[in-house]
Amino acid sequence: AICGAMLPLFLFSAKDAMISPPDSSSPIETRHKEGSSKLVGIIFFYIIMHSFSAHKEFRFILPILPLVCVLSGSAIRRIHLMNGAKNRRRNIIVTTVFMVLLNFPHLMFLATIHQRAPIAVTEYLSEKIEADSGTNSRRKFSAHFLMGCHSTPVFSHLHVPFTDIETWTLDCSPSCRGNASATCESEVFERNPLEFVQDSYMFGDGVTGDEMVCGANCKPLPDFIAIYDNNEKVLKPFLSSVGREVARFPQSIKGLGVNTKSSIPISLQYDEMILFQIKG
Asked: Which residues face 140 on adjacent strands?
């Protein structure tokens, strides 16, 4: 997956480095093959060692991407030299066009659609809070993100000058995950979102105005609550009783969004992030 469109080139270069016999008549090619063999060995050793780790994340293998690019570039060089100098210019043009056409759709998808919601919701919140603070001179707001582990880049994106924004994300810290006897907030929420909300907030029933009793860690309702649409059916009655939906943010192409962090096979898929503004 990390190779993307470079996978055929990487495999070609790896095969050439590890299987094909060296050209003894060319010292430069011999040194080149030795260097390529070392890079291939480093890549596979790195992948194998990380395969034994209990905690696996895609970002952990990103350091080998530059090495993959080097080997892919080596494969492109060999392709250019295959037909001699006469066709080299044509080979360069064909290879360049081929790589651009293969990578451009991925670039556009990753830059504009894929997992866009976490950044889009914080940008929207910044603009909304800035507008509200200018209208009523409020200087303190709160936003809660009821979703899985590491779902939003809150502190790097949610900033409004001269305004205090209190945020809450569900705990999935290393101290929690490393304790076999503890259950992280994110896991409790995934198992039963409605029960988690009822234990976390003090709110009325939306009909009679009677107040319900929440758990020991009861919190006041915030100004904004964000959820993913996989929990919309369960949580919307509650959220609609205490506030209103103000925006939706696409997370992926509809039907392709998958929560890979969840170990619960039910309601794995989510395509949008939904933001609710709670009644003041």
From this structure: 164
Tokens, residue 209: 């105005």
Asked whether the beta carbons of 251 and 152 are under 8 A apart, the reply is no
Residues 6+ apart with CB under 8 A from 276: 224, 225, 226, 227, 239, 240, 243, 244, 245, 246
Tokens representing 191 are 């198992």
Q: Measure the N-to-C terminal CA separation of the chain; round to a whole number of Å.
A: 47
How is residue 3 annotated by DSSP? Answer: S
Q: For residue 249, which of 228, 222, 235 has the smallest C-alpha distance? A: 228
With 0-12 CB in 10 A as exposed, 13-18 as middle and 19+ as buried, what is 124? middle
What predicted TM-score, i.e. pTM, was given to this entire model? Answer: 0.69
The per-residue DSSP string of 23-55 comes to -TT-HHHHHHHHHHHHHHHHHHHHHHHHHT-SS
Which of the 8 DSSP states describes residue 80? Answer: H
- pLDDT classification of 144: cutoffs 50, 70, 90: very high
Residue-wise pLDDT for 233-253, tens only, equals: 899 888 888 899 999 998 877
Instruction: Assess contact for 169 and 156: CB atoms under 8 A.
Output: no
**Assign residue 229 a region: left if phi > 0, alpha if psi is -120 to 50, beta otherwise?**
alpha
Q: Which of 225, 167, 233, 235 shows the shortest CA–CA distance to 196?
A: 235
Rg of the chain's alpha carbons, rounded to an integer? 26
CA dihedral in degrees (252, 227, 158, 172; nearest 10)?
-100
Tens digit of pLDDT for each residue in 55-95? 778 888 889 999 999 998 888 887 777 766 667 777 778 88
Provide the residue count of the chain: 280
What values do phi and psi take at 106, rounded to 5?
Answer: -65, -40
- Residue written as tokens 């070392």? 38
CA dist list (Å): 201 to 8, 26, 77, 148, 254 = 53, 74, 62, 18, 31
